[in-house]
Amino acid sequence: MRIWEDIVTIIGEKKDRTTLSLLKEVKDVELSGNTLFISAPDEVYKEWLISNFIEDIQECACRLLGQKLTVRVISEGEKKKKAEEVKQTEEKPHRFYRLNPKFVFSNFIVGSCNKMAYSACMAVAENLGKIYNPLFIYGGVGLGKTHLLHATAHYVLSKNPDANVIYTTADTFMSELISCMQQGSILQFRQRYRDVDLLLIDDVQFLEGKERTQIEFYHIFNALHLIGKQIILSSDTPPSHLSGIQERLKSRFISGLVVEVKKPDIDTKLSIIRKKTKEMNLHLPHDVMLFVSKTVNTNIRELEGSLHKLKAYSDIMERPITLELARDILKDVLKVQNVEELSIEKIQKEVASYFAVNLNDMLGNSRRKKVALARQIAMYLSRYLTDKSLTEISKAFKKKDHTTVINAIEKIEKAMEKDRKLKLTVEFLRDKILTL
Predict the structure, then answer these.
(1) How do residues 344-378 score in pLDDT, each as one tens digit?
(2) Bridge partners of 28?
(3) Of 23, 121, 271, 274, which is most buried, counting CB atoms within 10 Å of its CB?
(4) Model-wide pTM > 0.70
(5) Domains defined for the chain, CATH in brackets
(6) Of the candidates 362, 367, 365, which has an alpha carbon nearest to the alpha carbon of residue 382?
């Protein structure tokens, strides 16, 4: 740059010929933004220049260019190292696309509807290419398939930041293929997808009827599978129901493990609601949470959308959400059913019926083992399935104070830790009562 010649001329007026000659050894000066980079021949020259002239150089540069500048001196060795790092970064294949930072395993609510898929993804993440390869996950829209794919990618990268991971959708895969074919770079496309440790393809149903894309994907699939690289696929239907997909490709899809993600049950939906409302700083009474969990019967995405609508109303109107308000707010987006509040009376009747004991005996002081167990379980479920206070529960069971309820809850909790049969019984009753 001409700027360095001008700086040397100004500084040289006050220096001897030897110093002037040394200053002229700088051959490369670059202005980037508000920083003037000066390349020194070596480290010794760099230190000499910084120690003796950095302030004069900065003053001259600012005056000559008419702007405030920062001057940085770098050696040729540092410059070459930086250039090499940039080159390596540019040459490194694309590792992943658009991973959602929120889609991790710790944010995934596990229930009976998705436990198999969750466990399979965890196992694959720990043992890439060694088990369940390929892993094929199917289920309806908004049930968490994409979340599981992203979570697997995040987990693998957390364990090995250098792992080559590609997440994409079948639709994007097809668009990239078409673009590369038009540009004559199909070889680069193939190399990018074959040089991975983990390939995740979302929504493979969009490959239906796309013969050329299927052929390319078939060969990429075979190449990766042959060398033990992990493949995870998702679809809205099982492989056998994919029409317009080559049979040889479908046979590859089912050669590993095929798992389904189902619609969440009420218990899972309640867990999701509790977690989401906590994240959103939204207080919902138990009857409202139960109402939403029973009313939203489609998918998790719609469940979250309903919570966001309740949150918006609460913030804008500065009002707490009640059951009647929730019914009114969500009437346009949901098929609102007449969901009654879960009462202690209902719980008492269901538990008494299950254990085949007289309801009056259960609410009385009978010490028969079967009746006492039914009473304790009913108290436990009343505490965790309703928002009633301990005092209210004790009154419903005709007890003088709430210490009896506390003792019953603690006894059931401890017994469930040791007695698997009792734990399953309590969970069965809980699930049954939630669907009433």
Answers:
(1) 999 999 999 999 999 999 998 888 999 999 999 99
(2) 39
(3) 121
(4) no
(5) 2-91 (3.30.300.180), 105-261 (3.40.50.300), 266-329 (1.10.8.60), 344-434 (1.10.1750.10)
(6) 362
